[in-house]
């Protein structure tokens, strides 16, 4: 039984390493020339980073997907969002679509990853009680946590 548990842990680490390598490889070359190619590469990058951050935040028991979404579908001054169902332990993260970015490709991917981490931190806090008065305090904390985690991760690389 201990060997099976150890094998499972090793598989998780290997999957995380593969996802991280794929994410890094995905952006090591010049971005695709077509909008469709950029969208496909961005989706693969987001999916790979989502897998890594779900593991780091211990959210593996949640089914989480990421969907590229047009700016017009977001509230003003919003670049991402999340909807979750606690009973089903499922969530969808909405990430700004590549066609709506005005950043260089690598910076766009970095921003998408920030959105993923930011929204996963919201999910992690989902079990805490929420009061409308504390919403801005939570948003500030989530931004700080997400930025700190990404800074540490990028420093490591």
Description of the structure:
This protein has one domain. The chain starts with a helix and ends with a helix. The chain is of the alpha+beta class and 157 residues long. Strands 1-3-2 form a 3-stranded mixed β-sheet, with helices on one face. Helices cover 58% and strands 13% of the residues.
Number of domains: 1
- Report how far the terminal alpha carbons are from each other: 35 Å
In total, the number of strands is 3
Low-confidence stretches: 1-28
Report the mean per-residue pLDDT as an integer.
Answer: 79
Task: Please state the structural category.
Answer: alpha+beta
Please tell me what the overall shape is: globular
State the major sheet. Answer: 3 strands, mixed
- Rg of Cα set: 16 Å
Put simply, the count of helices is 4
Strand content: 5-15%
Oligomer: single chain
Percent helix range? 55-70%
What order do the SSEs take from the amino end to the carboxyl end, as H and E? HHEEEHH
